[in-house]
Specification:
Blueprint: E1 8-13, H1 15-32, E2 39-45, H2 49-61, E3 66-75, E4 85-89, E5 99-107, H3 111-121, E6 127-136, E7 147-152, E8 157-158, E9 174-177, H4 179-183
Parallel strand pairs: 2-3, 2-5, 5-6, 6-7
Antiparallel strand pairs: 1-9, 3-4, 8-9
Helix pairs in contact: 1-2
This protein binds 1-O-pyrophosphono-5-O-phosphono-alpha-D-ribofuranose.
Length: about 180
């Protein structure tokens, strides 16, 4: 691993730790869906693209039949209670009678996943489950979070899909962004 970028305070979750946990999560999902013919995996752009790529390749190794689709969402007013969310890009297919697994990179306030869960629930899937790589302490989620990689403190995290102004997404680890990097 090269030197840490000067805007980063520390590596919070190493590449190895992520790799190990993603494998464990895939095994757990495989076991839980052993009787499911096909899982309809919904990745939430942009943040989930790296986690989703690794998780689904592990699921392939475990012979879990699945397809992948994407939604892009944008959230407003993260610091407010309203947390309005807008769909920028929707799924390609109807999900009625499908076994759906939502894959998120992070549950921060919980607004995005709560909103999305209710939207997709309304489309009458056969089942609906949720999965996130990291969950922040402050989340107030009112929907189930079935698979969770890591619980993290309430700091700004980047890497492994997570960004600050679209930077740092492709780092192979999750790192804490220095406070001065987003307050200057
Ligand atoms: C991030 C992340 C989640 C959401 C979580 O997306 O990917 O979708 O925020 O936050 P919440 O729990 O407070 O709702 P963001 O809106 O930053 O877009 P991006 O994935 O395109 O970076």
């Amino acid at each position: 691993m090269g030197d840490l970028h000067p805007d980063l305070a520390r590596v919070l979750i190493s590449k190895d730790a992520i790799e190990k946990r993603v494998k464990e999560m895939a095994k757990q999902i495989r076991g839980d869906f052993k009787d499911t013919q096909r899982l309809y995996i919904v990745g939430i752009l942009k943040g989930a693209f790296i986690f989703l790529a690794d998780l689904t390749r592990e699921l392939s190794e475990l012979s879990m039949p699945h397809v992948v689709d994407f939604m892009a969402l944008s959230s407003y007013g993260k610091s407010t209670e309203s947390g309005a969310v807008r769909i920028l890009m929707d799924l390609r297919e109807p999900i009625e009678n499908q076994h759906v697994l939502i894959v998120e990179d992070i549950v921060d306030t919980g607004h995005t996943l709560s909103y999305l869960y209710h939207i997709l629930e309304g489309r009458k899937p056969a089942s609906l489950h949720t999965c996130a790589l990291v969950r922040k302490q402050r989340e107030r989620l009112n929907v189930p979070l079935d698979y969770i990689g890591f619980d993290i403190p309430d700091v700004w995290v980047v890497g492994y899909g997570l960004d600050f102004a679209d930077q740092f997404r492709t780092l192979p680890y999750v790192a804490e962004l220095k406070r001065e990097a987003y307050t200057r």
